[in-house]
Amino acid sequence: MAKYTVVTMPGDGIGAVVLPEALRVLDAVGFDAAYVHADIGWECWCKQGNPLPQETLDLLAEHRLGLFGAITSKPKPEAEAELAEELRDQGRVYFSPIVAMRQHFGLDVCVRPCRSFAGNPLNFVRQDGRGGVEEPEVDAVIFRQNTEGLYAGIEWSDPPEQVLEALRTHPRFARFADCDPSQLAISLRVFTRRACERIVTAAFDYARKHGYESVTVCEKPNVLRETSGMMEAVAKEVASRYEGIWLRSTNIDAQMMWLTKNPEDYGVVVAGNLFGDIVSDAFAGLVGGLGFACSGNVGDEVAVFEPTHGSAPKYADFPRSIVNPCAMILSAAMMLDHVGELEKAQRTRDAVGRVVREGKVRSYDMMKLSGRPDVFDQGAADSAEMTDAVIAAL
Length: 394
Ligand code: NAI
Ligand code: MG
What we know:
Elements: E1 4-11, H1 15-28, E2 33-37, H2 42-48, H3 54-63, E3 65-70, H4 76-82, H5 97-104, E4 109-115, E5 126-127, E6 133-134, E7 139-145, E8 155-157, H6 161-168, E9 185-187, H7 193-210, E10 214-219, H8 227-239, E11 246-251, H9 252-258, E12 268-271, H10 273-286, E13 294-298, E14 303-307, H11 313-316, H12 326-338, H13 342-358, H14 383-393
Parallel strand pairs: 1-2, 1-3, 3-14, 7-12, 10-11, 10-12
Antiparallel strand pairs: 4-7, 4-13, 5-6, 8-9, 13-14
Helix pairs in contact: 1-12, 1-14, 7-8, 12-13, 13-14
The structure holds 1,4-dihydronicotinamide adenine dinucleotide and magnesium ion.
């Protein structure tokens, strides 16, 4: 019997391309695992009226370890239109299955490492002031609260009377009191002290374990006084328990500017759900973009690892796949870390690093080509060739 069982959820579009590539790398590095397939995504929604089937939840509850590719989400009108006819008019509402999965299993700690690999032509460079350019080494790890905040899913268009009544108790709602409710849309930002404590503590633990000097809490407490204010206050309390690690505080807007000026100044960054999503994509853009952006969703019981990119539907049907599997492979390496297979995890990352550094095999994104089926004519590697190169480097 294999030592580990992993639930594999390829999902939609290129999720189904990159996930099998990552499995080939896991095999090559000697990871002793059995894989159980589970369905998730748009097709499940269209055919079953549920993008996150119960069987998938059951498998994850049983095996506690998942690899996820990507799903397609579409806006409300398309979600209704593409639903199988017999499932319509039953009050079914589409909700992102990955967000639902994070909430269902309490995968509240999202970890997104953004580290530059030497020699990546996509790495951030800046003018050095002497007529040349310099390439700072980026090594940021974003801790994003994964289950609450603006992604809690508590939203209304045309809010019901009870909601309006509650809102009228707030003096600042007076400005909107005359607005026709049918012209109102409301999304609620919910933070709990417990979740703030958990994400900040995870960030500080990581900083201590991996030798980072600082943790930066990135919110907007001057305006979002209650929610961001809570995160900031909790961060100060938690920081007092970690001697030698400096707590910094930035506002999300300023942080978006600073990270393209001095990205090397930031180590561990912690933020709520939306700001964490934003700041992690921004850091990812400095180290190779979506083709390299990996992540883990970690709870007390279950953990699911996934590239941060989506299903890239426009590339999904190319006869030969152009997409970069590295984000998925690096996510699989995070899974190896999570289960304690540290040496295999590091070897996997080193192999990706070697392929990038040697530069002989490069997917279209690394060549800065626009994504078209004919990128191979210009020397781009396909998804399988990238994976083969990583395996050879192992
Ligand atoms: P996307 O991440 O799928 O693609 C954006 C662009 O990034 C692509 O057009 C491509 O140029 C590039 N890209 C993405 N993955 C790449 C890879 N592995 N290698 C090279 N280039 C890559 O985001 P988009 O187009 O905004 O959304 C497409 C669908 O994916 C939507 O339905 C969206 O809701 C969904 N989505 C799902 C996510 C998830 O499953 N976690 C996350 C983000 C979007
Ligand atoms: Mg995102």
